[in-house]
Amino acid sequence: MNFSRPDIAYAVGRLSRYTHSPNQDHWEALARVLKYLRGTMNYGIKYSGFPAVLEGYSDANWISDSDETKSTSGYVFTLGGGAIAWRSVKQSII
Predict the structure, then answer these.
(1) Any residues with CB less than 8 A from the CB of 21 and at least 6 apart, and which?
(2) Which domain of life is it from (predicted)?
(3) How far apart are CA 76 and CA 84, in angstroms?
């Protein structure tokens, strides 16, 4: 069975930056993500039939807080209303 959760991609990406040395705030954030997952366990991605419209969305932010040194950008593509590809990345250029 394969599960995709684009709704937590940003939170997981943020938390993954601190796996080498997590503090109490990171553990609490992880607990919130797990609580969210527990509450949305039966959610799924729904793909509608016809017309199967392909749509793409993108977004970016400039440096959002003082701990950041790079901006973030991301995109999602949907087909028939369901996500088929997504990505959130830190920009390589400051």
Answers:
(1) none
(2) Eukaryota
(3) 8
